[in-house]
Amino acid sequence: MERISETARWVAWARAEESLRPDALFVDELAVEVRRRYPADRPVPGRARALFVIRTRFFDDYLTAMAEAGLAQIVLLAAGLDARAFRLAWPDGTRLFEVDLPGLFEEKEEVVRVAGIRPRCSRVIVPADLTGASWTRELAAAGFDCGVPTAWLAEGLLFYLAERQSGRLLSALGRLSAPGSALGLDHVNTAVFVNARSRQWLATMERSGRGWRSATDEPQRWLARHGWRADVREPADADVCHGREFAPAFLPGESRPRRWLITARLPDAPGEQPPLPHEVPKA
């Protein structure tokens, strides 16, 4: 039975390749060990590789900004092979929860052991299915405190969920989040499902058992319905891509597929407009 999906390995391989560059945007020792342990049976497409690298650094910066702003409770949803507990410089007192399927953690913890890496914060793993009804209880049982502001991350998750499932997840996050909490996530627009080149990628994902199920053309409005004030960026933005090329995936006259990189905040108090990650002063 496969415990680590092909898509999770693709992300790790991209992070491993980036880690070996002299101008690396991050160094991920866990990804390097994954690449050694699971040799690629086919190369990661260049556009996807660039996206994974840009997206990783974008959410590194988001979590770092939130931790420096005083959010000491971090939750990674569908954490997969994420190594941020091991490689980011967390402030003292940070507690980081990783939520994912039990089988994933059985394999991941062995890779962590072989890699010989140690977390730089208090790390708590929460084996749970995010599409089920019990994951919030399991998170609470692991020590999550809904009374303090939380920095959530749902990287590479929402487009795998049907629209109704995404709505339930965002509603749950709203119930669990204290005022001043933050949320990072990525999503796609509906043109992804009709663009010819994107459909080739989607067919690949379907064959791997990881088909995409939803999209949004208005991410700010979508998140506002759940109480979040969102800032939406794209991987090709000059201040987001860090010089990594992210070529357009459409031709003139074609619908334009878009990848949203989103950070959002809840108000600190009723009626307030909370700062977004890029607005938080550096400590």
Structure summary:
The protein contains ten helices and seven strands. With 283 residues, it is of the alpha/beta class.
Please give the radius of gyration in angstroms: 18 Å
User: Strand percentage, roughly?
Assistant: 5-15%
* Total discrete domains: 1
Total number of helical segments? 10
Spans of at least 5 consecutive residues whose pLDDT stays below 50 are none
Total DSSP E strands: 7
Ends apart, CA distance between termini:
46 Å
What does the main sheet amount to? 7 strands, mixed
Helix proportion range:
25-40%
* Overall geometric form: globular
Relevant CATH superfamily: Vaccinia Virus protein VP39
Overall pLDDT metric: 90
Query: In the CATH hierarchy, what is the class?
Result: Alpha Beta
* Helix/strand structural class: alpha/beta
Q: What is the CATH architecture assignment?
A: 3-Layer(aba) Sandwich
Q: Secondary-structure element sequence?
A: HHHEHEHEHEHEHHEHE
Lateral arrangement of strands in the main beta sheet = 3-2-1-4-5-7-6
CATH topology: Rossmann fold
